[in-house]
Structures are given as C-alpha cells and as structure tokens.
Specification:
The protein has about 220 residues and is α+β, with helices and mostly antiparallel strands. The chain contains 6 helices and 8 strands. It is globular and about 45 Å long.
Length: about 220
C-alpha cells in the first residue's frame, strides 16, 4: 500500500532537516509512539493503537537507510510486530524537503504493509487515519520547534558572553531525550471520526442481523 502526503513546517530548510532526521526528538511528536532504546543506528520503539475495544501494542525498530544532507532527502525503514498477536507492520518512508516562502515543504511517500487486525480497516480508512495523524504530528513538530527556540537563543547568548567550548552550545541547545513515561494509545476511531463510523455501522447491523437469524433458527 502506497500513501503520499505533503505538509509544511514553519521553520527553515536546515532546521527542518535537522529536526526530521533526529528520531529522538520526532518520535514523541507522533501520537501513540515512544522510544524504548537504541541498538547502533537503529532505534527501538513502541506504538500503541486502539481500535474500538481492541488495544494493540507494536514494538519494532526504525533506522535511516539513506540520508542525503545536501539534497535534503531521507529514507527511513521501520518494522514492528504486535506484542500479543500475529499482526505486523512494515514501512519504508521517503521524505524530501524543499524550501518555501512559508518555511519548508515536506513530501512523504510511504510504502506500507500491514498484517493482522489493523489491516481489516482497508486502504481507504488507513489513508484517512494516516492523514489526520500526520496533521497532529505536524502540529506537535511546530510546538517542538517553538519550544526549542528559547533554549537555542539562551545558548547563543551564553556563548556570546562566555565563549564556551565548541561542543557546549550544541549540547545545551539540544532537546533532552524523550522520557519513558506512559504514552496514551492513538484511538483510530476517534481520529477518523464519522467516516469510520459510517462504514462500520452497516457492518455492525449486518452482523447483528445474522446473529439474530442464527439464534432464531437454533430455537
């Protein structure tokens, strides 16, 4: 399944590239996601997904297979499996950044493969949900950029006043590593809203009708 999305980040090209290639900073911006460790260049993470009464936990790894700093293009490979269940998900995400008058335009192409309960949502619903989750992700990114602007300004002032070692200002400007606090699952029904409900209601009515018919026959 291939998905395409385009969004704009209100930051310079270099700043957006630095942020979007820093998995420690962007992971907490994605609803339901958190980092739980690192193995070499691969980051270990967890994603919690809720679909009605069903709660699924996916754990896996993500790493960059390509990262072109000059062209501002990166390819991220991620895969995970349900901790309790047979479901799995694999994704190859290609991001290309371009400077615009409003900031930076990011084009994302995702080659996604899902096996298990979430695959039953179908391509259309997955596209709808992923689009809305991406909107929330971008909003969180912009808050992260705004939050990091103040420490960076303070670090610059300190550097100008006391002239610290070259590595000191970079360290002070860097956002702290994400905590391992409890992360709320992303609720797919709440995220998709009415489009999902409209498609699920007929199925629920059909299932109920079949159940009633079977019960009457058994009587």
């Amino acid at each position: 399944m291939k998905l395409e999305h385009t969004f704009t980040v209100k930051a310079s090209l270099d700043e957006s590239w630095a942020l979007l290639t820093d998995l420690e900073r962007i992971a907490p911006c994605m609803p339901g996601a958190e980092l739980i460790g690192r193995e070499g260049e691969a980051y270990k993470g967890r994603v919690k997904v809720k679909l009605g009464p069903v709660l699924a936990h996916y754990e896996g790894k993500a790493s960059f297979t390509e990262k072109d700093d000059a062209a501002k293009r990166g390819v991220l490979r991620a895969e995970g499996r349900e901790t309790k269940g047979q479901g799995s998900a694999k994704a190859t995400v290609t991001a290309s950044l371009t400077a615009t008058a409003d900031g930076t335009q990011v084009k994302v192409e995702t080659d996604l493969a899902i096996v298990g309960r979430l695959a039953q949502m179908g391509r259309g619903l997955i596209a709808e949900v992923s689009g809305k989750l991406l909107d929330e992700f971008v909003a969180n990114l912009e808050r992260e950029i705004a939050a990091s602007a103040q420490p960076m300004a303070a670090a610059s002032a300190i550097e100008a006043a006391s002239a610290p070692s070259p590595g000191a200002s970079a360290q002070s400007a860097r956002a702290p590593a994400p905590s391992l606090r409890e992360v709320a699952p992303v609720d797919l029904l709440a995220t998709a809203g009415m489009p999902v409900l409209k498609r699920l209601v007929p199925l629920a009515i059909l299932a109920a009708s079949v159940a009633i018919a079977i019960w009457l026959l058994s009587r």
